[in-house]
Amino acid sequence: MCFSLQSSQITLLLLLPHFTTLRLSQCLFSPNHGTKTTLCPFVCEPSRALLDEKFKVLVKNAAPGAELTLRSFHQAEKNHHWEAFGHYVCDSSGTLNLCEDLSLGGTYEGVEPMGLLWSLRPVPGSKAGLRVRKTNVEIPMEVTISVYQGHLSESFSEHTAVAAVLVERWYMAPGVRRIPVTEYNLTATLFLPPGPGPFPAVLDLWGGGGNLVEYRASLLASHGFAALALDYLTNKLTVSEGRMMKNDYFEDAYKFLEQHPQIAGSRIAMLGLSFGTSMTLKMAVYSEVMKLRCAVCYSGSHIQPVKGSIEEIMNYFSENQEKTRINENQEIIWHDLLLPIPEDPALKVDMGRVQCPLLLVVGEDDQNWPAYVSAMDIKAMMEKAGNSHLLTLLTYPNAGHLIEPPYTPHTRTSLFRTAQTRHLCMVLWGGQPLGHSRAQEDSWKKTLAFFREHLYGRKNTADV
Ligand SMILES: *[C@@H]1O[C@H](CO)[C@@H](O)[C@H](O)[C@H]1NC(C)=O
Predict the structure, then answer these.
(1) In a shared domain, residues 336 and 225
(2) Both 268 and 344 in a single domain?
(3) pTM attached to this predicted model
(4) Which one of 181, 185, 186, 246 would you pick to mutate in the ligand 1 pocket, going by the greatest count of ligand atoms within 8 A of its CB?
(5) CATH code at 272?
(6) Which pLDDT tens digit goes with each residue over 384-431?
(7) Cα–Cα distance between 235 and 385 in angstroms, integer?
(8) Residue ranges of the chain whose pLDDT lies below 50
């Protein structure tokens, strides 16, 4: 026989009624160190939510003081298995609340309501260098959260969970539209928020691995911004004609957005991570076409031949290959490639010419790019030039290079194929799980607020 929550209790748990279906999982069994069978209703709420939303995990009516393990399991694309778990002790009423109660051990410790997501890691025996990257954003990331008796750390498949719930983490909120774009020969995907618009827009660039990466743009659209994910390194023309795009490729993407009937053409921003930051800073300062309202740059640098095309910038990096370091685990560290910071003004974007608000996000343990050192130089350049009032700088201790949307599992090192050489290598990104997770959560919140302020003109308001 199974317990079910009273409706009054359920009401307390509801967070986002428009986007929520409540799923209760029921206890299969729950032996209580003896003869009595206790019941343990288990709820994760909301069980269907956006990727960047918090959930609440509750266990009720377990045995008082029961030791339980909460475990999450994710089968990623390509069939790789990820897991996280925490060890808990129920209170005297047999209740466990992950928003309040401590994990005493596992893949995370302490009060970490979202630890079951951000500390996900490949199951033991997995091949090295995996990273969770969503390719199909039209279906959610699925995570199964299970409750086990006792404090387990391994061999979960040999134990039977006493309760389990399937959690869906969505990239596209209901009503968000995904539109493949080929105009101007672009390889891109436009995400539009629900409604008629016109919406302000974000041109979204990822880094040196290329490909059309949609999971951030789709989330931005879920928060009210049109967003164009752009493949500028492995796009159709580059591949078919064997040449890299010129900088006007970004201007074409901008023009596409500017002319789109559902986009507010005077309210366009750029967002870049890693090599995408190089491109964003370059276009923000030197493009005659792009009049950006604001720019957000993650984990990147202003160091580059400022007159260079994408290819020339990539070649400049390659010329510095001898500064690559390899650690004792044979992981590649590219941090020093652009160091020391050049004195030659032809080798760094003239940050004194930035005219729009700029948000810089850097991890202090970025092993892949000199993002922190570059941010300090950018700050000094802007102070000297008198435009530092446009700069917001966020730096995070123990955060690495891959600062992604909140609760994305931390990946300290992974297999990476550069768009230019197509070599597959084990790259060290840096960061520690907890510090990195904090950075992802905080920087995303501030990125959305920054876009709301500069694209919608709303300060300190909740989600649009
Ligand atoms: C697209 O690329 C092809 C091949 O390079 C070129 O002939 C054509 O003019 C391009 N179209 C646009 C709209 O730029």
Answers:
(1) yes
(2) yes
(3) 0.91
(4) 185
(5) 3.40.50.1820
(6) 999 999 999 999 999 999 999 999 999 999 999 988 778 899 999 999
(7) 37
(8) 1-39, 463-464
